[in-house]
Design goal:
266 residues, mainly alpha, two-stranded antiparallel ribbon, 10 helices
């Protein structure tokens, strides 16, 4: 397959350009907001819709700018790292917990089931931008990339003679991540959180699930060109950062289900 030419700019209004990537984040933000309001209607959830609105700035603006402070000035651009955003979310959750006197993990358990919505839309944005490709593989769904476009400059090295200006076929690892980290993880978390669970259990499932899916997909994703492989000739930065999430998820689930742990209402 040949990668379809998708203009990363969805709409131009005079000198201003609206990028598909930014629109994907808006879909993720408001989709997550809508689902959080729906979660408030569940009898075992101790939250009300007004509290979702109160947390909007902290949960959907602070994490982004905490991870990428210089992006405050980049009004035309988009893009963020999940692991950096996760740190921002944890900081925001701590501030919210302190301000409203809520338990930190009640907040994390409440918002975790909707996070995959943003992960899904973000990966679709990566695909539209033509970035974060997988390794070369001759599969029916692998895609050849047009090497003459600036956004595919990193793939110029494998634009070999006989490919008619296209690279060898790369796996669409962005779509793999959209499926596993977005759709599959959302289904698991939405089902798991539909009933009362011990405090930290939902957060543990999210941490473990995301870490496992991200670690697995990294095997077929090209490493960051400025970093390459970090250890053993195959370990990427994404995998290194996913290991603490996997271990943390296991620890949270153990703490949540240890004997005598009271059920949570979040």
């Amino acid at each position: 397959m040949v990668y379809p030419h998708i203009d990363p700019i969805a709409l131009k209004l005079g000198p201003f350009a609206i990028h598909w990537y930014g629109l994907m984040y808006l879909v993720g933000i408001f989709g997550g907001w809508y689902l959080l309001v729906r979660r408030c209607r569940k009898p075992h959830v101790d939250w009300v819709p007004n509290q979702v609105a109160d947390g909007y700035v902290l949960f959907y603006n602070l994490p982004y700018y905490a991870a990428h402070p210089l992006r405050i000035l980049y009004v035309w651009d988009g893009g963020m790292s999940f692991h950096g955003g996760l740190i921002g979310v944890m900081v925001a959750s701590g501030i919210y917990a302190w301000r409203y006197r809520r338990h930190f993990f009640d907040i994390i358990d409440f918002i975790a089931p909707v996070v995959p919505i943003g992960l899904f839309t973000g990966r679709i944005g990566n695909f539209i931008n033509g970035e974060l490709w997988g390794k070369v593989a001759y599969l029916p769904w692998s895609m050849r990339l047009p090497c003459w476009e600036p956004r595919f400059a990193s793939d110029r090295f494998d634009c070999l003679p006989g490919f008619n200006g296209l690279s060898p076929p790369h796996q669409p690892s962005q779509l793999y991540e959209a499926f596993f980290e977005g759709i599959v993880l959302f289904v698991i978390l939405w089902w798991f959180s539909a009933k009362p669970r011990p405090r930290m259990a939902v957060a543990g499932v999210f941490s473990l699930g995301y870490g496992v899916f991200r670690f697995a997909v990294e095997f077929v994703r090209l490493p960051d060109p400025q970093l390459g492989y970090l250890a053993f000739g195959w370990l990427t930065m994404g995998q290194v950062l996913s290991i603490p999430l996997i271990l943390g998820g296991v620890v949270l689930l153990w703490l949540a289900y240890r004997r005598g742990k009271p059920p949570a209402t979040a």
